Amino acid sequence: MANERLFDMDLRLYIDEVGNADLKSAATDANVRFLALTGVTTSRDYHDRIIVPALDRVKALLPGPTNGAPLLLHRREIVRREGVFAPLRDPDVAERFDASLLSFLHGAPYLAVTVQIDKQDHLETYGVWHYDPYHYCLRCLVERFVMYLKRHGWRGDVVIEARFKKADKKLKASFERIYKDGTENIPARTIQAYLLSGDIGFYTKASNVAGLQIADLIAHPSARHMRLARDGSEQPNDFGSKVATILVDRRYARNPRTHAIEGWGTKWLPK
């Protein structure tokens, strides 16, 4: 799939997060300074017809029992070689699996956007009043999705992995507010014209949604790459950097005229 081209009118945005929305701790703890939301956009047709079987072929390279349950790709467990991913401790198995996964992320039909907020900077910028960081990131991510849909005359919806009841309720209300009221950049009538629903969809990890697994796999590498690039730090020579290189080369959304990634495929907050 050529970048910025999807050939179906029914699109879906799959979201994953890195970090949390806690502002109080961010003021003193550098370990929780950042929150990033990564969205993976693809057509629902491509997802079911191309992405799911391709990802299943990657999973088939991993030996060992799963007790009859589908294998669910989770970046943290893969990196730690835990549970069903323990066979990756074998260098030969790891080499084949990693190469296949990178090939999949390189060739699968999706676009990626990561919106990241520096919560310390957010606190210093706004002082007494400030946005909820999660709502701020979600709003910017949905804005980019809606404008992508508008440019192509398509419609779509948004899904995320269910976490726990209180957080999901808050997220649902945040999404409904964006849909109902719009933002300072996009009026409600435009958002409502291109989003299929004012409800954000929630799926559990056990639902085995390929789009959410892709979002999980790329969210941390994308967020880390953004932070290191902003600081002018060297990118490490590891699997995460290989994923980030694929995003930069092929999968981040871009300005359709200039092909710039910043502001389109990546976005720092606060402005």
Pairing-aware structural class of the strands and helices?
A: alpha/beta
What would you give as the CATH superfamily?
A: Ribonuclease H-like superfamily/Ribonuclease H
Number of domains: 1
Strand residues, percent: 15-25%
Helix content: 40-55%
Sheet bearing the most strands, described?
Answer: 6 strands, mixed
Name given to the CATH architecture: 2-Layer Sandwich
Order of helices and strands: EHEHHHEHHEHHEHHE
Helix/strand layout:
Layout: E1 10-18, H1 23-26, E2 34-43, H2 44-59, H3 75-80, H4 91-107, E3 111-118, H5 119-126, H6 133-152, E4 155-161, H7 165-181, H8 188-194, E5 201-203, H9 210-231, H10 239-251, E6 266-269
Parallel strand pairs: 1-4, 3-6, 4-5
Antiparallel strand pairs: 1-2, 2-3
Provide a descriptive summary of the structure in words.
The chain is built from ten helices and six strands. Helix 2 packs antiparallel against helix 4 (91-107) and helix 4 (91-107) packs parallel to helix 10. Residues 1-8 have low confidence and may be disordered. It is globular, with a radius of gyration of 18 Å. The chain has 271 residues and is α/β, with parallel strands linked by helices. Helix content is 48%, strand content 15%. Strands 5-4-1-2-3-6 form a six-stranded mixed beta sheet, with helices on both faces. The protein has helices at residues 23-26, 44-59, 75-80, 91-107, 119-126, 133-152, 165-181, 188-194, 210-231, 239-251; strands at residues 10-18, 34-43, 111-118, 155-161, 201-203, 266-269. It has a single domain, classed as Nucleotidyltransferase, domain 5 (2-Layer Sandwich). It starts with 9 loop residues before the first strand and ends with a strand.
